[in-house]
Amino acid sequence: MAQLHFTQNLVRHTQCPSAELPAKTVAELFERYFETWPAVRHYVLDDQGEVRQHVKILVDGRNVKDRRKLSDNINVGSEVYVFQALSGG
Predict the structure, then answer these.
(1) 3-state secondary structure of 9
(2) Which of 6, 30, 71, 80 has the smallest number of Cβ neighbours within 10 A?
(3) How many C-alpha atoms does 85 have within 13 Å on its Cβ side?
(4) Distance, CA of 23 to CA of 32 (rounded, Å)
(5) Which class for 19: exposed (0-12), middle (13-18), buried (19 or more C-beta within 10 A)?
(6) What are residue 42's phi and psi, to 5 degrees?
(7) Could you tell me which residue, 79 or 10, shows the higher pLDDT?
(8) The predicted structure's pLDDT at residue 86
(9) In degrees, to the nearest 5, what angle opens at C-alpha 81 toward C-alphas 14 and 24?
(10) Is residue 89's pLDDT more than 60?
(11) Please, are residues 23 and 32 in contact by the beta-carbon 8 Å criterion?
């Protein structure tokens, strides 16, 4: 199973606890997660189901390549982190 984690700046806006879920792609991982935590979808994906502009997703320390369909593969034991970019100066 893959582990999905959200950074603290996202946790401030909605409940999004870490989870361990079976999945072969990032899309599948999110679909399974959103079944239990549907409010998180709006913070991660836009209306077309693509990763929001100011969200970064890492799989095992690497940026996802497919921000549209989330077809990047994940493995058993993969760690997926979701970051919401911060702006300001």
Answers:
(1) helix
(2) 71
(3) 11
(4) 8
(5) middle
(6) -60, -30
(7) 79
(8) 67
(9) 110
(10) no
(11) yes
Report the distance separating Cα 67 and Cα 20, nearest Å. 21
pTM, whole model, 2 decimals? 0.91
Q: Is 62 helix (H, G, I), strand (E, B) or coil?
A: strand
Q: Both tokens of residue 88?
A: 């300001």
Instruction: Give bridge partners of residue 55 from the DSSP assignment.
Output: 84
Q: Which residues of 41-74 are buried (b: 16+ CB within 10 A; e: fewer)?
A: eeebbeeeeebeeebebebeeeebeebeebebeb
Amino acid identity of 72?
Answer: D
DSSP string, 13-39: TS----EEE--SBHHHHHHHHHHH-GG
3-state SS class at 48: coil
pLDDT tens figures, 44-75: 999 999 999 999 999 999 999 999 999 999 99
